[in-house]
Amino acid sequence: MGQLLWSILRDLYVFLIVVFLIERFPGSDLMHDVFRKTVMVATIGVVIWKLFGGMLSETSSVGGPRVGGPLRQKKTEGGNGHGLEWAVCEMQGWRAAMEDATCIAATLPEPLAHQALFAVFDGHGGSQVSHIASLEFPKVLQVCANKLRDSDEVRQSSRQDDVSADGSPGAVSGCKPHEAEDEAAEVEPRTLPAPTANGVEAGSARDEGGLSGKSLSMSMIAMDAFLRQLGNGLNSKGKSSLLQLSSPLGIMARHLEASSQRNAFNLVGSTAIVALLDKTGGKRSVTVANCGDSRAVLCRNGTAVELSEDHKPELHSEEKRIRQAGGSVKLIGPCHRIDGWGLNLSRALGDFHYKARPDLSAEQQKVIAVPEIRTVELHSDDEFLVLACDGCFELHTSQKVVDIVRVALRAGQTVMQAAEELVDQSCSPNLVKTRGKGGDNCSAIVIKL
């Protein structure tokens, strides 16, 4: 019924536009003056909404919302091993395109042989960055881990041989794919302050996180450097933008960027929530790297324990950095955005339009790819871990997400079914009733411990 009413209103509006154009001919006076002005105002409003409407919603998608309702077909996969059972579920939902991507590597070579990798990448402005990250991140992580291990071994050997500190190599820069950018090796991992609830303690990536934390931190920076180089290469081949030319972001890109500054990923990016889970027996732990507003939540005896903090522009530390980089943070519609029109998150892979200050380091730009690292020991009452894009948290709190999965598992459902239940309940049945929330892509990984 709603679709029929929309079709009638659309056809009536087109008819009025035709009448309005006929009136432009001399001697035609088919409309009352007030009605004529109403049609003009409505037309201007439609044009503005088509151009910039996507920027006023919580998250901008290249294609905007789907016509005809959400696409609920799901892609679900599962696996198990080493005392873990996991499932990943992805659903396009109301969006016109699927921009999320996920990554699972249950087996990694040395020096991460006892770790399992799980990651969710939530793309925006297009699916290119999230898709590339999901394919390349395990490779980048492995190279970084090898270089860090080799660097530590060389330093230890140098100390044993009484070699001065100046002689020991800083070889971590070698973890950059294709020798992307030297700044990747200079960024130190940043940790969240230790939380006071649920007995979870956040540790330094250099201490409790150990090799896992340092490898994740370095890999995120290296991945971003690789994307910058790749985007420049695509641009040099004539592909100045992977955005649809008619999209709001595509139009904005052409106005804001000089040809010499264009990168295929200037306004295409992705969040990243990545977990390395120690799958050995005895004392087990999980190390989480967060960049953006996707989220990691641990279920500890039925209670949600957040292992990440959403990176939003209005956070004090994030806003301070944005302003120091010459940007601003403004409340536009339901959320705060960088420079008033831009991103509603402050850390991401890609998005090089916001990382264009040559006089600033990688960790001082408006948007940065520096992750926050959190390492926690797993207890006997830890039941499962959820990694999910922000689409799963628009309608639900972290506790509600845990409740949905826990109820499904306790009802005898498999991990795959529990992941599907979470994704299903995260998609709005009616965007009008939920005021636009629940209209994003939904992707989640559930790991039963």
TrEMBL record:
Residue ranges with Basic and acidic residues bias: 150-162
Membrane topology reported for the UniProt record: Peripheral membrane protein
Xref: SMART domains: PP2Cc
Subcellular location: Membrane
Keywords linked to the UniProt accession: Hydrolase, Metal-binding, Protein phosphatase
Domain PPM-type phosphatase: 85-449
Gene3D superfamilies: PPM-type phosphatase domain
Domain of life, source organism: Eukaryota
PROSITE patterns: PPM_1, PPM_2
MF annotations from Gene Ontology: metal ion binding; protein serine/threonine phosphatase activity
UniProt key word Hydrolase: yes
Disordered, as annotated region: 150-211
Listed InterPro entries: PP2C, PP2C_BS, PPM-type-like_dom_sf, PPM-type_phosphatase-like_dom
GO CC terms of this entry: membrane
Record-stated family: Belongs to the PP2C family.
Protein known as: PPM-type phosphatase domain-containing protein
Organism: Symbiodinium necroappetens
